Amino acid sequence: MTDLSALPPVGARTEIPILRERGQREVFCGLTGIVWLHRKMQDAFFLVVGSRTCAHLIQSAAGVMIFAEPRFGTAILTDRDLAGMADANDELDRICVTLLERRPDIRTLFLVGSCPSEVIKLDLAKAAERLNARLLPRVRVLNYSGSGIETTFTQGEDNALRAMVPLMAPTDEKQLLVVGCLADVVEDQFRRCFEALGIGPVHFFPPRRAADPPPVGRNTAVLAAQPFNGETIRALAARGATMLSAPYPFGAEGTTAWLAAAADEWEVPADRFAAVTAPMIDRARKALVRHRSHLAGKRVFFLPDSQLEIPLARFLHREMGMEPVEIGTPYLDRQMVAAELPLLPVTTTLSEGQHVDRQLDRLRAAAPDLTVCGLGLANPLEAEGLATKWSIELVFTPIHGYEQAGDLAEIFARPAERRARLRV
């Protein structure tokens, strides 16, 4: 269909040894996914059931919403609840009903566990079932875990989307389903691109309205936009959908290969694919050139945090000329990164999980030009003289697609530019 001969076939170089570590971790929990999910689904509300500590985390992480009425909140469990001195189920029902009376715009209510049921002494699945019997059809209640014991940073989104899969209507229509939360502007860009290629109908999951999930069935082709939604993909596969294997749409090369996977499935002619994508590829490459001089030849070290590490390392290596020293990821889902692994240099170290002390020792010994890490490690490493980039910025910033390729490169180039100005 289209010439992507520069990309090695899937499985060509997946023999990169994997360093599996189990020890102390420094990552956010899955509750943080609420921050972007509540902005995406305009009719949903996320009620975290947990401790005061969890309430502080959500308030701090989502502090940008302080001037607007957000679509998330916390039902704080106290010592009385945990000791069984109060009926926490009755209290939760009361809070939910009061919330829905105050916010009649809510059509889907997510109960989000901040800890496993054994810890909070509440079965949120049963609570959701009980509330649905009372509130349907006006409001649908779903539940999932965002517990830091069970999830890492971005897995909260995966759990939320997986909870929505049973609500998706069956269909036999041939369709494309793009899975993974994207900024509305990026979603609109991709939609126009698919329309120009003659691919459709196209649905995006999560939808902009949680009450209107897209259909799914045996003729549904799934294209993953985020590498951390593996459980959702497998739940869709159980409904008959088929996943298209492709690199993720980061940079000109990744976006082209991602679109090509859908174009091949729809048998789009090569000349049409080239005509549609060529102008966008040209703009993306011109945007990347401006930042390549700051990054080419530099060494980058990824500490595990968001599960975006592997596709981002591929982008930096192949399109920006950087050398990944180590690529750490909280969890390596081979199905989700099958098309990315062959694109990594065999000289890099690929690590799964984390033993933070050992990883910091390797980091200091390598002394890379740039370290991509979580907020908790960035400032101490900066104090040691290492340039850092917060991995959380790569989740909150629109970085997918051709039009955002330059913005993505700038995120990594900014620390180098800042240091160069400080030296002057």
Question: What does this molecule look like?
Answer:
- The chain starts with 17 loop residues before the first strand and ends with a helix.
- It has a six-stranded parallel sheet, with helices on both faces. It has a four-stranded parallel sheet with strand order 3-2-4-5, sandwiched between helices. Strands 7-6-8-9 form a four-stranded parallel sheet, with helices on both faces.
- Strand 10 (299-302), helix 12 (309-320) and strand 11 form a beta-alpha-beta unit.
- The protein is an alpha/beta fold.
- Helix 10 crosses helix 12 (309-320).
- The longest helix is centred in the middle third of the chain and has 26 residues, at 270-295.
- It has 16 helices and 14 strands.
Task: Write a short abstract of this structure.
The chain is built from 16 helices and 14 strands. It is α/β, with parallel strands linked by helices.
Radius of gyration: 22 Å
Distinct helical segment count: 16
How are strands sequenced across the largest beta sheet?
A: 1-12-11-10-13-14
Roughly how many Å apart are the termini? Answer: 50 Å
Q: Give the CA-based shape.
A: globular
Taken in chain order, the helices and strands follow as: EHEHEHHEHHEHEHEEHEHHEHEEHEHEHH
pLDDT averaged residue by residue: 89
- Biggest beta sheet attributes: 6 strands, parallel
Low-pLDDT runs of 5+ residues are 9-14
